[in-house]
Amino acid sequence: MQIHIVTAFPKFFDSPLGESMMKRAGQSGVVEFHVHDLRDFTTDKHRSVDDYPYGGGPGMIMKPEPFFAGVEHIRQQYHLTEARVILLSPQGEKFSQQKANALAPESGLIFLCGHYKGIDERVHQYLAAEEISIGDYVVTGGELPALVVIDAVVRLLPGVLGDLDSAAGDSFQSGRLDYPHYTRPEEFRGWRVPEVLLSGHHAKIARWRREQAETRTRERRGDLFET
To answer: Partner of 120 at 20 to 30 A CA spacing, among 63, 76, 111, 178?
Structure first.
């Protein structure tokens, strides 16, 4: 998979994409990360990516030209004519595990990161194939939401996680929250690991985990349990 990020703040991604699972995924060749500076696609001497809004009002609006030029460059340079263009936006579809699963088979994804007050509506209408929101709140820009979506997608790619069951058993994959997990020591400050997990009886352990997942989902996410 090729993942391209178009942003006015490219250094924002240096550390997250160079650590832990993301680093291993890139080094193994499972995924290629390309971060593009939005200012490289400007045409004025100040490399401006924003301007005042028509009609007045507070804040600055990101210009359409650099985004269109950036996506056109990526499509031509990297031969990604079919890559999905995703705009991170509070107005977008709320991100979910099901959406991550849907994006994982794609060969190429292009993420557009907004900033400031907003992005020219023509980017929404004519460039981005879809818009994604990570929740009903507002953050400074699209960089953090892009990382959230990318992380959730990349961990689903074959070969990224050491254990193939690691992603399959995650919360939300089965429509439930995950069951409780324990490791050594067997007793810590008087709190013991449940005896069933020490029994070696795989059928009983599987049943206990299923019951715990259902109970936790019912108690903590009643909406998810009903669905």
So the answer is: 76
